[in-house]
C-alpha cells in the first residue's frame, strides 16, 4: 500500500519535454531517501495542459506541478514527499491564490471541462490493466454480455444520441444497427486511429492514456453487431500509442477479456493492430479498409456502404477512437445520463486540441454547446501578447474558420456546419491579427494537394489548380477573374470528388472567402497583405526620423541589404532584401516598419 | 476471465489505490504533522498506518491522508488532524500506529470522535 502516488505525464507532449528523464530521476531520488515502499511513481497519459509540460501530480494532496525539471526533483522529494511541504514555486500558478492552493478542478482550465473520453487520461497508468479495472473498466463489457441483448446495446447508444467523433457526426447507434441487420458469416469492427488533421491529437492522447477503453468499446461493438474480430488502424507515427496498445491487447488477452468465451458467456472477440503509413486519405473509411486489406489506400465509391460490404467485403463498422472512448461510460451510466449533456442534436462532450495563438495549448473536453468564447477566453486563457482574436480554424483541411462575429456560437455539429466550418476531429487553431487568411487557406491547400491520393480528377487536378491561384494571390499577381475562377473551382471540386478528402478540400478557401473576402481583395487589387505575412507583398523600410544610425540592423542583416554610416539614418536596399525581418526584430528604436 | 466476480475482485482490490487520486472538495482530510519534530517522535509509521488502513477499508474516495509541516505543538507530536467538510477540526495528539487504527475504526468509519486522544482532552497550561 502506497500512501502517496506521484503521477508523471507520459503523453507525447510531456515525453518530448523530458518526462522520461524526470521519472528516472524521481525513482532514483525516492530510493535514495528510502521512500520506495511508501510512494509510488505512476506514468500516465495526457492531462491536457501540454503547454506546461512536463507535468507531475502528487496525490493525495493533488498538487499540480508544471514545467518540472530534473534539477527540481531532489527538492520535490525532500520537501513534498519527505516533509509534506508543497513546493509552491513549481505549482501551476493558476492554482496558487492568496487564500492558499486551490484545487486543480477549480482552475479556469479545468473548471468548465467535463471529462468522459479523457476521464482516465492522466489518472491511471495505461500500461497496467488492473488500474483500468479499478476505475470501473471492463464492467460495461461485463454488463453488456450478461444483462443486455445486442438490440438493447444498440438502443442504448441510439437513445444516448452519440454521434461519430471523427468529424462526420453520423449517429453511432444507427451505424451499428445497419451493420447488425446485415447477415453474414463474418463481420468486422474497426477503429479509426489514423488521426491526420494538422493540429489534432485527441485520438493519440486517448490511446496513450486509456487504451483499454477503446478495446472494451470495440468488444461491445462486436457483441452488438455480431462480429468477433476487430482491427485498430493506427498511424505508425504514433509510437507511444502503438506501444501502449500492444501492451493493452496482450494484457487483455492474458486476462481473457479478449479471446474465447469472454466472461464465460460464449462470446469470442479479438483485436489486431494495423499500422498506417501516414497517408491522410487513409482516414477515409473505404481507403482505410483497403489499406487494412493490404491494398493501396484509395477510396471507392459508396454505396455499397461498409455496413453492407466493408472490410474483405463483409459487413463492417468503423468508429473513431474518441467515439469508442465514450461508449463504456454510456453503457454504465445510461443513455439518459449522456443525453442530458450537450445540445438538442449534439449530445455529450467533445475533445478539442487547442493550438495556435492561445495561452493554454493542449487538450480540453467540453460539453457540446459551450461557446467559442468560453473555450478560448476562459479555458484557453486567451490570446497571448494582448493581440486581437481574428478567427478560429476547426476541422483541419476539411473545415473552415469561425470569425469574431460568431465568437459566441455554441459549438456543436450543426452550428458549425451552418457557419461554413465543421467539427472535424476537433483541432481548434486560434489565429490573431498577425495571421493572413489567404496564407492559411494556402497552407491547407498545400496539405491536400500533397495528400490527394490521385484517384479522381477533380481532387487530383482541381486542388492543384486552386493552389496555383492561391499562390498567385499571395504573390500579388492575381486578377479579380482569378478570384471568381477560384470560387467556381471550389464548388466544382466539392460536387465531383470521389471521397470526403476532395469533397471537403475547398472548405478552407470557401470559408475564408466568405468571411475575409476583403483580405483576398486587398491582395488582388491593392497588392497588399493586411496582416503583413505574404512576403512578396511586403517591403521593409527605415523611418529616417527615428533611426539613430546605431548600425545594429546592418550588422544583423544576413544579406548585407542595409547601407548607412554611423549616426546617420540607414537605408534598406529593396533589391537585396530577403524580407526575413531580422532588422525589425533587432532595432531598439522601432525605426523599421513593414508595409 | 470467466466471471464477473473475478472482475469485481480485481476492481475492489484496485479501487482503494486508484481512489487515492480522486479530487473532491467534499473529502475528509486526515493530515499528519511530518516536520522534524513529528518525524522524530514517530509520525512516519502513523502516516503509513493511516494511509494503509484507509486504502484497505476502501475509504480513499472519501478520505485523503496527507502530510503537513510543524503546527507548533511539538511536545504533542505525532499530531493528526481530521478535517471533515462542514465540521470543526479535530486534533489528535501523541499518536502511534495502534491509536491511528482506532481513529480509522471509530472516527473515520464510525463517525465518533475519539475524545481521549484529542488535544482538547490534554491538559494544556
Can you put this structure into words, describing what you see?
Chain A has 595 residues and is α/β, with parallel strands linked by helices. Chain A folds into 5 domains: 4-111, Glutaredoxin; 136-338, NADH-ubiquinone oxidoreductase 51kDa subunit (Rossmann fold); 349-432, Ubiquitin-like (UB roll) (Roll); 437-525, Up-down Bundle (de novo design (two linked rop proteins)); 539-594, Alpha-Beta Plaits, CATH 3.30.70.20. In chain A, 39% of the residues lie in helices and 16% in strands. Chain A is globular, with a radius of gyration of 27 Å. Chain A starts with a strand and ends with a strand. The mean pLDDT of chain A is 93. Chain B has a 4-stranded mixed β-sheet. Chain B is 38% helix and 15% strand. Chain B has a single domain, classed as Glutaredoxin, CATH 3.40.30.10. Chain B contains 4 helices and 4 strands. Classes of the chains: A alpha/beta (595), B alpha+beta (125). Chain A binds chain B through residues 1-5, 7, 38, 57, 59-62, 82-85, 103-106, 123-124, 130-131, 133-136, 138-139, 142, 146, 255-257, 261-264, and chain B through 1-4, 7, 10-11, 13-21, 23, 25, 32, 34-36, 39, 47-48, 50-52, 55-56, 60, 64-69.
